[in-house]
Amino acid sequence: PLTPVQHWFFEHDLPNPHHWNQSVLLEMRRAIDPVLLEKVFRHLFAHHDALRLRFTCSESVWTQFNAAVEDALPFSARDLSTLSDCEQEAAVAAAELQTSLNISTGRVLRAAYFDFGPDQPGKLLLVIHHLVVDGISWRILLEDLLTAYEQLSRGEQGRLATALVVRED
What we know:
By secondary structure, this protein is α+β, with helices and mostly antiparallel strands. It contains four helices and six strands; from the N terminus they run H-E-H-E-E-E-H-E-E-H. The strands form two sheets. Strands 1-6-5-4 form a four-stranded mixed β-sheet, covered by helices on one side. Strands 2-3 form a two-stranded antiparallel ribbon. Helix 2 crosses helix 4 (135-153). The radius of gyration is 17 Å and the shape is globular. The two termini are 13 Å apart. Mean pLDDT is 87; it is low at 164-169.
């Protein structure tokens, strides 16, 4: 069943419910392996059911369900190292991630890693629909992202203790 917050969201009948999101742009302090980062997102996507939520409306009644883990991975890596600083900035700002969310077809999370070359830190853009994330969930997700990356980079199996839960209030 929908939580009270989700009911509130759908009762407001927003003109574009797919674009009600939160985002964060993280600057990496060290070199990041995009292939490993993709594995991390596969792990997070499997671990956190909330990141696979889908919402459907039938006869004015909204319902939610979890999609299979095998559904499209919400991660991409983009090499911007051959672009000028201005072009790099414009490419990140123009990233279509925010407009690609769709609560019905399953795009409630999108992530993109931007590689600016060896002399500049990379950046990770995370865009998540507000139906599946809040302030506390962000903290859990970012902690799990770091933990999983560190574990997998050491060749360990990713083990995460927490799970995102959509708030009840």
